[in-house]
Amino acid sequence: MGGDGGRGGARVSAVTSPATTAPSGGAVPGAVHTLLPTTIVGSLPKPSWLAQPEVLWSPWALEGDALIEGKRDALRIAVQEQTRRGIDIVSDGEQTRQHFVTTFIEHLSGVDFDRRETVRIRDRYDASVPTVVGEVRRERPVFVDDARFLREITDRPIKWALPGPMTMVDTLYDAHYKSREKLAWEFATILNEEARALEDAGVDVIQFDEPSFNVFFDEVKDWGVAALERAAEGLRAQTAVHICYGYGVTANNEWKASLGSQWRQYEESFPLLQRSSIDIVSLECQHSHVPMELIELVRGKKVMLGAIDVASEVVETPEEVADTLRRALAFVDADKLIPSTNCGMAPFPRAVAAEKLSALSAGAGIVRDELA
Ligand SMILES: [Zn+2]
């Protein structure tokens, strides 16, 4: 895995050269853009018949076969909405999972969900979490059927998000390995198995969510990036890492308020990621205090730039989105810029999320026209 340059051109074209291509400019229905292809980081709101709206990690409103069918229908709607709103690289909107980490862990052996301990998550808030009681193993595919379904219902390039190894470790109590590094390595191996299966199911971009990279800087250096590369090892699909400041929930908002006027946390991980085998770095920018010039630290990588705020229900204007993208272009080449959201949009009312998708496409369209 020798960084961006050594990787297959065929794989890149899977994302940037689909069958239908808009020559330039605004959101042309049915066409995928090769320049500034838009995407979202992860979650979209779920329909109220599937789970309680505007709540994070809310329990399912259906059971059994009705739940299976409901998740599929919600996934279908998520794809339809992204397509209609001009999103180029579509995802499942995380309609089939309750929590971005726990749903994955539920499919593994070695973790006891009935034995719970209270731990401090990301050094920020206490949560009751399951316990690692033995060797962790992936007994069966986790998201592969869902990804195959997503592949069936869209011709667009598709992206799938998985939790990153360090963030998984940070969401559990470990009574077995008693070493965060060892457990991360086990998870990286498991994630790699899942990622390879997702790739075989036709996924073009595999994203690992590592919000922990903004918190545990020593571990990021010591083993975090290495574990992430292990999770991404040997993949033909493009690989992305998403590092953010989290959803707009109280614990996160209080943490952000303590970070001062300039959020420089990316300064710790970006130089390491720049030298890593990961293809795409996803960061938040819109309305955050991240100095734009930090993007320079991952020069050469593709940048999934957060141009949509997920902590405010105020919908950005296309011009605002365009302005954020223009400022980023001082630090990233246009052919490497992927306009995106800051993080997931699950807690929003559905209409707000949908309008934000439209604003993202329209803003990217403005800048595309300027570049053409
Ligand atoms: Zn995020």
Per-chain topology:
Layout: H1 9-16, E1 21-22, E2 32-33, H2 64-84, H3 102-105, E3 108-121, E4 125-138, H4 144-153, E5 159-163, H5 165-169, E6 173-174, H6 180-200, E7 205-209, H7 217-231, E8 238-242, H8 250-257, H9 266-274, E9 280-284, E10 302-306, H10 318-328, E11 337-340, H11 350-371
Parallel strand pairs: 1-2, 4-6, 5-7, 7-8, 8-9, 9-10, 10-11
Antiparallel strand pairs: 3-4
Helix pairs in contact: 2-4, 6-7, 7-9, 10-11
The chain binds zinc ion.
Protein name: Methionine synthase (B12-independent)
Keywords: Metal-binding, Zinc
InterPro entries: Met_Synth_C/arc, Met_Synthase_cat, UROD/MetE-like_sf
Task: Provide a short characterization of the protein structure.
This protein has helices at 9-16, 64-84, 102-105, 144-153, 165-169, 180-200, 217-231, 250-257, 266-274, 318-328, 350-371, and strands spanning 21-22, 32-33, 108-121, 125-138, 159-163, 173-174, 205-209, 238-242, 280-284, 302-306, 337-340. It has 372 residues and is of the alpha/beta class.
Structure characteristics:
372 residues; alpha/beta; TIM Barrel; 6-stranded parallel beta sheet; 3-stranded mixed beta sheet; 11 strands; 36% helix; 17% strand; globular; disordered N terminus; binds zinc ion; metal-binding; UROD/MetE-like_sf; Methionine synthase (B12-independent); Met_Synthase_cat
